[in-house]
Amino acid sequence: MSARFEELDWQPTAMGELVLRRRRTPSSDVDIYEVKLGDEFLMSSMFTVAEVEMARLALREVSGADLDVLVGGLGLGYTARAVLEDPRVGRLTVIEALGEVIDWHRRGLVPAATSESTDARCALTHGDLFAMLRAPGDPFDGRLFDAMVVDIDHSPRHVLDPSHADFYEPAGVARLAARLRPGGVFALWSNDPPDEAFTAVLAEVFATAVAEAVRFPNPLQGREATNTVYVATTAPLAR
After folding, report:
1. pTM for the full model?
2. Is residue 13 situated within a structural domain?
3. Is residue 7 part of a domain?
4. Does some domain include residue 22?
5. Domains in the chain, number
6. CATH number of the domain that 177 lies in?
7. Which of the residues 12, 124, 210, 233 has the least number of beta carbons within 10 Å of its own beta carbon?
8. Closest CA to 147 of 113, 105, 176
9. Contact (CB, 8 A) for 189 and 151
10. How sure is the predictor about 2, in pLDDT bands with cuts at 50, 70 and 90?
11. What is the distance between the alpha carbons of residues 150 and 205, in angstroms, rounded to a whole number?
12. What is the mean pLDDT of residues 55-73?
């Protein structure tokens, strides 16, 4: 039986103090895992519906087999696990800016632990996805992806670090689109309601762009909550 509250890990990082904790509420016998970065509450295992749905919405748009997928942001691992549940996925690369988070997964500290040891299709990479997309040369070694799924910031308007902001402008989105195959898909999680201005940015770059509202129960507040998943696709090859 778990303790009522336990701090599983604490690490100083360049972005602030990173904390992984596990707790139980008096009314539940289920462990809840939470992550904080500095003053920011990043994620909770209580609220993973939209993270899972993001992977499903993205892969729904892609046809074929042996899919090559990139996930930006590992977190507690629910998005990566949902990608790996699709049998069409042949290769998954997860890029995570905080090496400490990757270590949690390799040590099995989180319930949806994802690592090279649990699925041979998966590779965890310590890196800054936004910086990689800006970098001269080709840090992706020429690879084009069938899907790129990103869950790093709270929303396009609420970023964890100022250096992330340019990713949500047309030039930043275009850098990501250039890493997708024809007919490929980009999906982005957001904690905010659908943002028409950002959807318009996506529409400048991609062939299609929509904002999907994902609803789920919030037992802490006794009401329904909503996240947004943006889904954009590149044009398919002309026949």
Report:
1. 0.93
2. no
3. no
4. no
5. 1
6. 3.40.50.150
7. 12
8. 176
9. yes
10. low
11. 17
12. 97
